[in-house]
Specification:
The protein is an alpha/beta fold. It is built from 10 helices and 14 strands. The chain is globular.
């Protein structure tokens, strides 16, 4: 039995950040055929909810590049690679130097999530706050209230690609951190950044899920830097036509464009759906 894993933005989602009707019908056919499948994305669970409208993914879903798991039936989270405040100190200094507003996601003692952030620097930070404020089960707090013993899940932000690239470089010099940046899919000058514990990634998360499901093979789809850890572990790794050349070079093959049902068309042929 295969475990099929999809990245979201630039892979399974179209340019409207949604599942197309063809993708939804293809996923339903996979479910009926008894094929294991799920998602692995840099998004948070909350930011992905609207994007997944139209289909209920039945298995553990992987968010925040492997740090956060969500089970849709049991309605529970699992978290891996928790950071402490001292471990993110240098990262926050990089954000301040580059004029980018960081959002620090933390898990509280009662299992709820809180997000801490400093004063907003620009419209990018305002856009993040507007999105996070939609969710009643998430608390937004000023950075000065971040507890010294906080359990930090990850740091994320939106911004212009140049300062985010500088932050990635600085954070990846910290041995306990890993940082990714990408985007430009929906707005060319708007990129995302995600920083979390180096022990966790999409690859390690889906490998663990494969073992729990006792699946024989891993088949993955992606288009960005944070998908390469999946590519390295997969039996088959497919890059989207819209992916950069260096991502395609690491793939088993390149398939169709994310805005032209590339994944759905490929799956229908591969599994005779």
């Amino acid at each position: 039995m295969d475990l099929v894993v999809f990245d979201l933005d630039g892979t399974l989602l179209n340019k409207q950040q949604r599942l197309s009707q063809k993708t939804i019908s293809t996923l339903e056919k996979m479910k009926q055929a008894g094929i294991y499948y799920t998602i692995a994305t840099g998004r948070t669970h909350l930011s992905a909810m609207d994007c997944l409208t139209g289909h209920d993914f039945p298995l553990w879903q992987i968010y925040k590049n492997g740090v956060e798991w969500w089970h849709p039936t049991d309605q529970v989270y699992r978290h891996q690679g928790i950071l402490d405040v001292q471990m993110i100190k240098a990262a926050l200094e990089h954000f301040e130097d580059q004029g980018v507003t960081p959002f620090i996601f933390c898990i509280e003692a009662d299992g709820q999530q809180s997000v801490y952030h400093p004063e907003l620097h620009d419209h990018y930070g305002e856009a993040v706050v507007a999105e996070l404020a939609k969710h009643d089960n998430l608390t937004l707090l000023p950075l000065e209230q971040l507890p010294a013993d906080a359990n930090v899940i990850n740091i994320s932000a939106l911004g212009h690609p140049d300062p985010l690239a500088n932050i990635v470089t600085g954070c990846n010099e910290q041995e306990h951190l890993v940082a990714y940046s990408g985007g430009g899919i929906y707005h060319p000058q708007t990129h995302w950044i995600d920083i979390h514990h180096h022990s966790t990634c999409k690859g390690s998360a889906i490998k663990r899920l494969q073992q729990e499901l006792n699946a024989d093979r891993l088949v993955v789809f992606g288009d960005g830097d944070n998908d390469l850890t999946m590519f390295k572990l997969a039996d088959e790794a497919y890059a989207m036509d819209n992916a950069p050349y260096y991502i395609k070079d690491q793939a088993s093959a390149a398939i169709g464009h994310h805005d032209q049902d590339g994944v759905a068309e490929f799956l229908r042929k591969k599994y005779n759906l």
